[in-house]
């Protein structure tokens, strides 16, 4: 394990989450030995257990991962990795199975997470499965209904703050770093990212290496995790190149996209992040350093998209591709189209868009879309339908 901030190095130790010397972000260095997809057994995240360091004598799993890679109907050579098909409806489940298993195997009884909603739902489900007590810190009034309902369903204790996700995140840091009373389940915990990197393993096993991978970015762990997965496979000679990582943020919460655009080494944080895509309404991403490393070393980039572009992309995904994704996930398509228009990616290359969460997470976002709803007299239903069929002919 190596600290991205001060360079401190230590042997793999599952008890360590942040740098023991400076408190910075740790990277878990994995060198695959004799790795081949043809030797693997099982499905989902734990199919790749040879690539996940640590001791997992007890695994807390709800059969996460093994999500569909759906070919686009609109863009040839483009695929959607639909993470909404995970047990709680987002990619967080991949990280949670590893992080919660680590918590159990290292003897923790109380876990906590700050969340815009999906981490909360996932952490609550895995904590229940493991029999752990869980505290969720949420920005009051800013969590999509489906996600809040999930956290209630799984029986978590919900602590609400007035303010953004960033304030909730700072509160969890206090519980973990200053007081040492919880095991943190957010993505500054590098064990979480070991689970999330299996997105790359699944893509590579199914279609080899893509040219570009387009990922919505919020707290900025996932883009790094996916890049890490591809990097490990490339270093082991399993794939020949690392795809360019293209991060997409909402215009009102775009510290990383702005840093890349301006060529900064450190982002300027957004004090009051705002976007309809509540999952990525984050102004101070804890993993910004990892995300910038993934983007720059893969020769990728980061872009921001407007709320209107996100809404249009969500509609297009649903109404032209048949895929229901939440607004933050639709940002990937909005960003992809922007990247094509700006000549940043070539639509005829092999491109993968990560659709991070299910549409059902955010019913209010769906209900805001234009709908054809007509009150009818059931006895004369044919008048409407036949009338329209005739008009269309
Ligand atoms: C649906 C969804 N998409 C994208 C993201 C962004 O992922 P990350 O925080 O790893 O950048 C999140 C959470 O942050 C999310 O819930
Ligand atoms: N969108 C996230 C924000 C927290 O991200 P994490 O990956 O650091 O847990 C959420 O769903 O809460």
TrEMBL record:
The modification N6-(pyridoxal phosphate)lysine is found at residue 92. Its cofactor is pyridoxal 5'-phosphate. InterPro entries: Ser/Thr_Dehydratase, Ser/Thr_deHydtase_PyrdxlP-BS, Thr_synthase-like, Thr_Synthase_bac/arc, TrpB-like_PALP, TrpB-like_PALP_sf. Pyridoxal 5'-phosphate binds at residues 118, 218-222, 356. The lineage of its organism: Archaea, Thermoproteota, Thermoprotei, Sulfolobales, Sulfolobaceae. Residues 61-357 form the Tryptophan synthase beta chain-like PALP domain. It catalyses: O-phospho-L-homoserine + H2O = L-threonine + phosphate. Catalyzes the gamma-elimination of phosphate from L-phosphohomoserine and the beta-addition of water to produce L-threonine. This is Threonine synthase. Belongs to the threonine synthase family. It is an enzyme of class 4 (lyase). Its EC number is 4.2.3.1. Keywords: Amino-acid biosynthesis, Lyase, Pyridoxal phosphate, Threonine biosynthesis. Pathway: Amino-acid biosynthesis; L-threonine biosynthesis; L-threonine from L-aspartate: step 5/5. GO terms for biological process: isoleucine biosynthetic process; L-serine catabolic process; L-threonine catabolic process; threonine biosynthetic process. Pfam families: PALP. One of its GO terms (molecular function) is threonine deaminase activity. PANTHER family: L-THREONINE DEHYDRATASE CATABOLIC TDCB, THREONINE DEHYDRATASE, MITOCHONDRIAL-RELATED.
């Amino acid at each position: 394990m190596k600290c991205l901030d001060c360079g401190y190095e230590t042997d793999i130790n599952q008890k360590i989450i942040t740098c023991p010397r400076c408190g910075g972000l740790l990277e878990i260095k994995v060198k695959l030995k004799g790795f081949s997809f043809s030797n693997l057994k099982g499905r989902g995240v734990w199919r790749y257990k040879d690539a996940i360091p640590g001791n997992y004598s007890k695994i807390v799993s709800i059969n996460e991962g093994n999500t569909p890679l759906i070919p686009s109907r609109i863009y040839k050579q483009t695929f959607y990795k639909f993470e909404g098909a995970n047990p709680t409806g987002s990619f967080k489940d991949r990280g949670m199975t590893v992080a919660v298993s680590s918590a159990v195997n290292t003897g923790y009884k109380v876990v906590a997470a700050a969340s815009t909603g999906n981490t909360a739902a996932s952490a609550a489900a895995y904590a229940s499965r493991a029999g752990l007590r869980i505290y969720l810190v949420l920005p009051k009034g800013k969590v999509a209904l489906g996600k809040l309902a999930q956290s209630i369903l799984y029986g978590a204790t919900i602590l609400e703050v007035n303010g953004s996700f960033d304030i909730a995140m700072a509160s969890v840091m206090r519980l973990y770093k200053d007081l040492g009373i919880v095991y943190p389940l957010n993505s500054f915990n590098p064990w979480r990212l070991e689970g999330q990197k299996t997105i790359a393993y699944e893509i590579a096993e199914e279609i080899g290496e893509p040219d570009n991978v387009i990922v919505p970015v919020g707290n900025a762990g996932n883009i790094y995790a996916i890049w890490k997965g591809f990097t490990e496979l490339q270093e082991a000679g399993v794939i020949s190149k690392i795809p360019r990582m293209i991060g997409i943020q909402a215009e009102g919460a775009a510290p990383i996209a702005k840093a890349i655009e301006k060529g900064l080494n450190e982002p300027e944080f957004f004090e009051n992040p705002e976007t309809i895509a509540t999952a990525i309404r984050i102004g101070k991403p804890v993993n910004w350093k990892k995300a910038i490393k993934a983007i720059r070393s893969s020769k990728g980039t980061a872009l921001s998209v407007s709320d209107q572009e996100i809404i249009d992309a969500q509609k297009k995904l649903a109404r032209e591709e048949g895929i229901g994704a939440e607004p933050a996930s639709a940002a990937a398509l909005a960003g992809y189209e922007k990247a094509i228009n700006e000549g940043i990616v070539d639509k005829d290359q092999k491109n993968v868009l990560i659709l991070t969460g299910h549409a059902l997470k955010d019913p209010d976002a769906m209900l805001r879309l234009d709908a054809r709803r007509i009150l009818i007299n059931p006895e004369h239903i044919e008048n409407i339908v036949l009338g329209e069929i005739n008009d269309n002919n």
